Predict the structure.
Amino acid sequence: MNLAEITKKLRALADELDASNARLDADAQQPDPYAELKAAHAKGKEIQCEQHFLGSGYWYAIDDPRWDAEPIRYRIKPDEAPWIEWHGGKCPLKDEEVEELQQPDPYAELKKAHAEGKVIQFFSKTSVPMERLQRA
């Protein structure tokens, strides 16, 4: 390798280093997406992280957050909703303040079809004798 080739490679490396430094400078100027969460954590607020593999809505406390998940996966633990005793009569809460606890029946459509006499088919990885699948 002659001096001209070495010089050419060094210039290419220097250009690559300059481009890398420019990207780092641009990233450093971006606002910290965790700033509000970090400030709350420093003030003693509890930080929670969402269990993404269980689906949304499952949160657990983190004593020492690593801030390595997406910012949307973190939150400041919300204040507990006050417990309201209710002994009948008019509900003291507005409709938008009430969380519906009863989930819709996931089998309602199948139950309706069965009641109408329609054949219900299903897939199973287990072996079921045909006589058990016949309608009684």
